[in-house]
Amino acid sequence: MVNIIIISLILFFVAALFEIGGGYMIWRWLKYKKDLFIGLFGGLALFSYGVIQTLQQANFGRTYAAYGGIFIFSSIIWGAIVDKKTPDRYEIIGALITLVGALIIFFAPR
Length: 110
Fold this sequence. Notes:
This protein has 110 residues and is an all-alpha fold.
């Protein structure tokens, strides 16, 4: 059971990296007129995010509902590391609340 939880968490956070990274590359391509290659690579990363999500054991609805919390939490981390934007206490509290919610949605015994 512990292995399944660890694998699921790894998949969630890898998916978040690909989705946020892919969206970021497309953002930079369109907003800052970066090279088309950046946009294409971002699209490939977003496609990969979708594929990674299919590796989860749960059904689509539960996987994507839980992923929402992981995405919010990961986005705050991305902003702190990549955009050098220190999150305020409300962003941290909100991200932790959504992360706890995601873990309850996905890992609660059924």
